[in-house]
């Protein structure tokens, strides 16, 4: 199998929903909003096995200093093949001239994955968010 990577946003709403549901992410339950969010993102890199969407990463950036990597995911049937790492390196290359490239793993256990690519846990940082109760 040959995995191809692209920044073209040729994925469909159904393909995106299937991928997000394959990893159990709640975003997959909101296909319209998820699709719009991806289309409106600064960068989306997708991984494909033929016409099957098997991985995706997106980044939001301010155009000069900060890029925030979000949604790094790979279909469980394709995990362990270096797909996520390849996409992370593609993001790092694209944003190599930015001052910060940040990621906020939602689970502490995932921090070691990002550390392999030079990311460090912020000494005094803490992740914060609000969740819209109407969702």
TrEMBL record:
Organism domain of life: Bacteria
Record domain N-acetyltransferase: where: 6-135
InterPro entries: Acyl_CoA_acyltransferase (IPR016181), GNAT_dom (IPR000182), NSI-like (IPR045039)
Gene Ontology cellular-component terms listed: cytoplasm
Pfam families referenced in this protein's UniProt entry, alphabetically: Acetyltransf_1
GO molecular function: N-acetyltransferase activity
Keywords: Acyltransferase, Transferase
Name the UniProt record assigns to this protein: GCN5 family acetyltransferase
Naturally occurring in which organism (per UniProt): Bifidobacterium ramosum
């Amino acid at each position: 199998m040959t995995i191809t990577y692209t920044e073209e946003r040729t994925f469909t709403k159904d393909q995106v929903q299937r991928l997000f549901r394959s990893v159990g992410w709640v975003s997959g339950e909101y296909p319209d909003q998820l699709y719009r969010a991806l289309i409106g993102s600064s960068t989306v890199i997708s991984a494909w096995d033929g016409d099957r969407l098997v991985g995706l990463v997106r980044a939001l950036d301010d155009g000069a200093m900060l890029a925030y990597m979000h949604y790094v995911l790979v279909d469980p049937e394709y995990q362990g093949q270096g797909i996520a790492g390849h996409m992370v390196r593609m993001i790092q290359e694209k944003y190599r001239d930015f001052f910060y490239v940040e990621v906020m793993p939602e689970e502490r256990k995932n921090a070691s994955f990002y550390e392999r690519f030079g990311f460090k846990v912020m000494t005094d940082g803490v992740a914060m968010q609000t969740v819209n109760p109407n969702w």
